[in-house]
Known about the structure:
about 260 residues, alpha/beta, 13-stranded parallel sheet, 5 helices, about 30% strand
Amino acid sequence: YSLKSETETELEKLGKLTSDAEKKSHLNSAQTKVNSLQDLLNDALSYLPAYDLRKSQDAVTTIHENIARVQQVILPKKKFAFGKKKNATANINITEKKANSDNKFSKYTGDVIYENKSNVTLNIPKNEIHKKDVLLKNLTNCTVNLKSTMGTLHCTNCTNCTFFVGPISGSLFLESCNESVYHVTCQQARIHTTHAATFYIHVTSKAIVEDCKGLKFGIRDQFYEGYEDDVAEAGLGETNNWDDVDDFNWLSKDPSPNWSTV
Length: 262
């Protein structure tokens, strides 16, 4: 795509800039272009062959990762991080390739991070996550309440948890989140290496799954006070493609054995 080249050009320019205002402007421009790319891809979901869809979505995801990594290095945001403290990592190379790993979304960060929790209920305040990118990582036997509009939600390595999630104006990214239940509203869902999870979902584009087994999808039926206002704020419409799921591991026209409806 020409938009892909334009986005990469914006990122390349950042290394030559000295003003924070200029850096922010180019980052915003790159983010706008990658959002346009995602919109184009979403419009093509109904007719694009599975192989081309997978290749294109991986390209868009990589650009998202690069933008997040560049922003973290040159314009780091003050983050709320909840969990065990970790040593900071120095000398980050913003142009390095993804590490050899099966984790597609492990490089993602967030404006708000909750990690390394077990056997607790997390009632995350709205003012901490409103319109922000949220990362949930390494949660076990937890109930998580996210009653607010968010930009994106990334969940990695969450097991036997229940999530009540407000409208996500962008995408839900899941990786290795097994035996969990999601009540979620989003523009798109990408689910990777996840087994035996159930989704009560309102998704205006569609869900995409890869390397998954035993997934179940149903219509979202649990809400909270102020939910409809949050949906309007997130810009999500009434269209719900809850049972329109693309499985990148199943190219046959027959139904995929890796997911079913509830």
